[in-house]
Amino acid sequence: MTFIDWLFPTIAPCDAAEPWQFGFQDAATPIMQGIMDLHHDIFFFLILIWVFVLWILVRALWHFHYQTNPIPQRIVHGTTIEILWTIFPSIILMFIAIPSFALLYSMDEVVVDPAITIKAIGHQWYRTYEYSDYNSSDEQSLTFDSYTIPEDDPEWGQSRLLEVDNRVVVPAKTHLRIIVTSADVPHSWAVPSSGVKCDAIPGRLNQTSILVPREGVYYGQCSEIRGTNHAFMPIVVEAVSRKDYGSRVSNQLSGEA
């Protein structure tokens, strides 16, 4: 728990974009938290470099201005400064490269034995989800289409152009594998608060892994521009408790929901 969480305990994480928001959405997965931490670390070095370069620029303008120094200073060669401006950038790059490579490999890591596998198929302009673990020989499967809620037909509390008629319900604190593909044109399956963006390519299966540590509703959109209705393919992932997830799956399979 951070100091802000302790000081303002009523503030809940927001898993959707806010009006006039600057920066990332609140992290909902360890991967997204790692992306945010890496961004803040790199931004720290960026501020230091920016201040240093600005100081050099102002100093050069001052010392070589014709009114301040009619006879400008002459700097022909400096071995020490050349060694320093070679070593220090190398050290900074090393401090940036080590955590970035660690995060990159963790993002590409695929869970060998995930608890649940969900297949997301992109269409023009909706998605079909298939819970592959619940397919059986009697042709009973958990498959449904997910359409966006029309702009003139939202219910109270639903976000405009972000809500769908059928959410992707997953259990919290569980390793998930998402298989992404497309049935027509390239799409993308992206949930910013989860740090996930996976392209949906026709004839190809791409996969990514998700571990959602807390319950909540997470919103995403198609981030691959492909046609006029590309912006009307939202994604809604609802993480619930394992007990609630089991009851919802049972009701879905039995045709009660």
UniProtKB/TrEMBL annotation:
Needed co-factor(s): Cu cation
Keywords noted in UniProt: Copper, Electron transport, Membrane, Metal-binding, Mitochondrion, Mitochondrion inner membrane, Respiratory chain, Translocase, Transmembrane, Transmembrane helix, Transport
GO biological process, one term: ATP synthesis coupled electron transport
Catalytic activity: 4 Fe(II)-[cytochrome c] + O2 + 8 H(+)(in) = 4 Fe(III)-[cytochrome c] + 2 H2O + 4 H(+)(out)
Location of this chain's protein in the cell: Mitochondrion inner membrane; Mitochondrion membrane
InterPro entries hit by this protein: CcO_II, CcO_II-like_C, CcO_II_C, Cupredoxin, Cyt_c_oxidase_su2, Cyt_c_oxidase_su2_TM_dom, Cyt_c_oxidase_su2_TM_sf
Membrane topology of the entry: Multi-pass membrane protein
Co-factor remark: Binds a copper A center.
Source organism superkingdom: Eukaryota
Gene Ontology MF terms in the entry: copper ion binding; cytochrome-c oxidase activity; oxidoreductase activity
Keyword Nuclease: no
Domain Cytochrome oxidase subunit II copper A binding: 113-251
Pfam family, any one: COX2_TM
One Gene Ontology term, aspect cellular component: mitochondrial inner membrane
Cytochrome oxidase subunit II transmembrane region profile domain: residues covered: 16-111
Chief location category: mitochondrion
TM stretches of this protein: 42-62, 83-105
Job description of the protein: Component of the cytochrome c oxidase, the last enzyme in the mitochondrial electron transport chain which drives oxidative phosphorylation. The respiratory chain contains 3 multisubunit complexes succinate dehydrogenase (complex II, CII), ubiquinol-cytochrome c oxidoreductase (cytochrome b-c1 complex, complex III, CIII) and cytochrome c oxidase (complex IV, CIV), that cooperate to transfer electrons derived from NADH and succinate to molecular oxygen, creating an electrochemical gradient over the inner membrane that drives transmembrane transport and the ATP synthase.
NCBIfam families xref list: CoxB
Homology family: Belongs to the cytochrome c oxidase subunit 2 family.
Name by which UniProt lists this protein: Cytochrome c oxidase subunit 2
Underlying gene: cox2
